[in-house]
């Protein structure tokens, strides 16, 4: 354990774990601690974090509203790729970590700190995401991961440490937190405790952001989302900033029970975990974006994007946002979005979001080509005969060989 740390920047939420870490850093490293709290749209009042840090003797406290940067520079670029991890997860936690880690490193550089610190556990993915980002942005920065250093390995040990050091312990109406919640403007993630057994359905009190689809309005709601170069820019004709737009879609989707996901995923560190994710606005954006792409992307573009997307999703999930290969893929994805402009109409109803109309000034959809009525003659039905013969040639050769071999 390095003892030459004089100043460290801590990713601080004001909760029990990071408050314990704050005290532990002061005791263990005998260093000055700077706190950084990011507003990513988690929906919590952040001033209590400032007051708690002040009570613990912190002189340098950073609380920053990063909602617009989060959506504009991280969420939107990711959604241009229709990014989904393991076929379902919209990466709400994964995409937030590189922004938090980036600001940790920047604050450390600005304040002359020797290290940064985070509260991610030794079993999770977040420790990897925070530290890979730090490695990519400042190879000289030290990272302190208390969960890999200290001997506080149980909830009881944490509570005893908090009580010993007079750190306030918040409790919910059930007496203790029945699960862990991570929230930002893109999603809410609930894990642990009552959710650990994947054979047991999640309790009704777990969802934070969406109504039960069965209790959603009996009337469908129709909305229109405007797109420019692959990014949503308006809802129902109203131009909105990135964060305001996602907030609006969260409200609409949450009201109709859109975006719930009970998922067992494969963590990068090698274990499976179960969680309940709620991504109402993101689910609508994914559906709508694929809708506008369906008429503006060429088949080759669309299929190549779909082939590359799982790799792109895995890079984000595993913490490689600032890796060169992710940036290479981003350049390709962004190139594909040049003509992804137009409007998409989406129906929200009882947990579902479905495209019912789409239009674009750059549409590749040709009524003349697809009509069952007589067209202008651009497409000659006779051309299909040669097309089929050439594509079927290898199949005929293959079948003839098998027949000769008696198969």
If you had to describe this structure to a student in words, what would you say it looks like?
The chain has twelve helices and 14 strands. With 407 residues, the chain is an alpha/beta fold. The model has no long low-confidence stretch (mean pLDDT 93). The protein folds into two domains: 7-164, 3-Layer(aba) Sandwich (Rossmann fold); 180-297 and 339-359, Argininosuccinate synthetase, chain A, domain 2, CATH 3.90.1260. A hairpin with a 5-residue loop joins strand 11 and strand 12. The protein has helices at residues 16-29, 47-55, 67-79, 97-111, 126-137, 155-164, 242-255, 280-296, 299-318, 324-336, 367-370, 383-404; strands at residues 7-11, 32-39, 61-65, 115-117, 142-144, 180-183, 188-191, 221-228, 231-235, 238-239, 260-266, 272-278, 342-349, 352-359.
- SSE-based structural type: alpha/beta
How helical, in percent, are the residues?
40-55%
What is the tally of helical segments? Answer: 12
User: For the record, what is the CATH homologous superfamily label of the largest domain?
Assistant: HUPs
List keywords for this structure.
Argininosuccinate synthetase, chain A, domain 2, Rossmann fold, alpha/beta, 5-stranded antiparallel β-sheet
At a glance:
The protein is built from twelve helices and 14 strands. It has 407 residues and is an alpha/beta fold.
Question: Which secondary structure elements does this structure contain, and how are they paired or packed?
Answer:
Layout (H helix, E strand, L loop, with lengths): L6 E5 L4 H14 L2 E8 L7 H9 L5 E5 L1 H13 L17 H15 L3 E3 L8 H12 L4 E3 L10 H10 L15 E4 L4 E4 L29 E8 L2 E5 L2 E2 L2 H14 L4 E7 L5 E7 L1 H17 L2 H20 L5 H13 L5 E8 L2 E8 L7 H4 L12 H22 L3
Parallel strand pairs: 1-2, 1-4, 2-3, 4-5
Antiparallel strand pairs: 6-7, 7-12, 8-9, 8-13, 9-10, 11-12, 13-14
Helix pairs in contact: 3-7, 4-5, 7-8, 9-10
């Amino acid at each position: 354990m390095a003892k030459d740390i004089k100043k460290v920047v801590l990713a601080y939420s004001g909760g029990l774990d990071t408050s314990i870490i704050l005290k532990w850093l002061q005791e263990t490293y005998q260093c000055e601690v700077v706190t950084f709290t990011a507003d990513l749209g988690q929906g919590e009042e952040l001033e209590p974090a400032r007051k708690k840090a002040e009570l613990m003797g912190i002189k340098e406290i950073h609380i920053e509203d990063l909602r617009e940067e989060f959506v504009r520079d991280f969420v939107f670029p990711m959604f241009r790729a229709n990014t989904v991890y393991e076929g379902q997860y919209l990466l709400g936690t994964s995409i937030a970590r590189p922004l938090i880690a980036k600001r940790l490193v920047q604050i450390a550089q600005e304040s002359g700190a020797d290290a940064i610190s985070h509260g991610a556990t030794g079993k999770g993915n977040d420790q990897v995401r925070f530290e890979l980002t730090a490695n990519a942005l400042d190879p000289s920065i030290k990272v302190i991961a208390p969960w890999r250093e200290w001997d506080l390995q149980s909830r009881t040990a944490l509570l005893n440490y908090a009580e010993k050091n007079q750190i306030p312990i918040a409790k919910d109406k059930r007496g203790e937190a029945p699960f862990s919640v991570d929230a930002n403007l893109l999603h809410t993630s609930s894990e642990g405790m009552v959710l650990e057994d994947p054979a047991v359905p999640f309790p009704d009190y777990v969802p934070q952001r969406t109504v039960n689809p069965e209790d959603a309005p009996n009337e469908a709601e129709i909305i229109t989302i405007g797109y420019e170069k692959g990014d949503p820019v308006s809802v129902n004709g109203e131009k909105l900033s990135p964060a305001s737009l996602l907030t609006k879609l969260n409200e609409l989707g949450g009201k109709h029970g859109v975006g719930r996901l009970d998922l067992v995923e494969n963590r990068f560190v090698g274990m499976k975990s179960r969680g309940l994710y709620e991504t109402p606005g993101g689910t609508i954006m994914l559906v709508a974006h694929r809708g506008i792409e369906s008429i503006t992307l060429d088949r080759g573009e669309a299929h190549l994007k779909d082939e590359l997307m799982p790799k792109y999703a895995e890079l984000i999930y595993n913490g490689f946002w600032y890796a060169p290969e992710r940036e290479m893929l981003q350049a390709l994805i962004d190139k594909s979005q040049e003509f992804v402009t137009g409007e998409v109409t989406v129906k929200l109803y009882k947990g579902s979001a479905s495209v019912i109309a789409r239009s674009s000034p750059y549409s590749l959809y040709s009524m003349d080509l697809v009509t069952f009525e007589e067209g202008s003659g651009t497409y000659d039905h006779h051309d299909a005969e040669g097309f089929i013969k050439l594509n079927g040639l290898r199949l005929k050769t293959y079948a003839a060989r098998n027949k000769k071999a008696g198969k």
